[in-house]
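Entry for the shared binder. Reason: the reviewer on the internal report wants the predicted structure included alongside the sequence.
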Amino acid sequence: MNAQAVSRIDDGRGGAEHMSLPRSSMNMMGFAVCCLCCDEPDVAGSERCRSCIASHAKTRERLSTQATSKADRLSRELVIMLSNPANHTEDSMHGEMMIHYTELINAHQGKAPAKTIEEIVAVFEKQKNKRQKSLIRDVANNNEWHDVELSADQREEMLAKITGERPKHMPSWDELLSEVEKLLEEDER
């Protein structure tokens, strides 16, 4: 790529805007959108790139410690939003900017917005069927019982092991229905 190249993108706010392509380190930190909003010429290794990368790295390092104030929690929330703006377009306060950032990232990645009803429906279906990533679900709950539906006997056996008590006899539906029938017969007499 030409070192002096500048990307042009129509940001939907009236005309094309100059922007820098995301640096790999900024992308890895989740700040690609910062590069996409940068008005500097797209020159890798420039002083501005180095200072931004260093500043954002320090910020990420500071945010990796325990939150001690509301400002810390807000900072973490904003960084999470910036790193994946498409998941936060419904935010009442920042939704409009998250939509803009999502459009910038999509345009950079060559994804055109859906224009026809069919394309829009396809996008919604894809998003609906997409499994959301969850560290707890994907890593912490990685056990053999994760997707297993236990039978009533297995549940009772596990409960007995946990509580240390012998399982009580639980009547089946057939037994309950026959009991009800007996009661109804007694009432008829």
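Summary line for the report: The two ends are 96 Å apart (CA to CA).
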